[in-house]
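ok so I'm stuck.
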Amino acid sequence: MTGYMVHARRRFNEALTVLKKDFTKEHLKKATAYQAMTRIEILYKIEEMIRSKPSEERYEERQKQANPLLEAFFEWLHTLEDSVDRSPLIGKAVLYALNQEVYLKRYLEDGHLSIDNLAAECSLI
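replied:
not stuck anymore, here's the structure
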């Protein structure tokens, strides 16, 4: 089973959207939600760069570029696990990502898999 990063990204984005009302741009950059979104967006940029490559090359590039970033992302989230407030949106986003860690990493294992299912979701609309 594969998880889709779009669901984790959506949760962090919801948390960030709430913060935008009360935070300055400088304060936002220090927020967990902002930092998570920045890390996730880098993973999406990698996917954008390798989208047209054959699956074997996508696999290789993911191992070189995305795997270390995704590992660092989850290491960082694990450091927050005990300190994050579980009730606000950011707590729910962190816990969702951690609970889905194995599944969110699965796309790295096969160049045929996608980082998310956004295209499939959009086709249903």
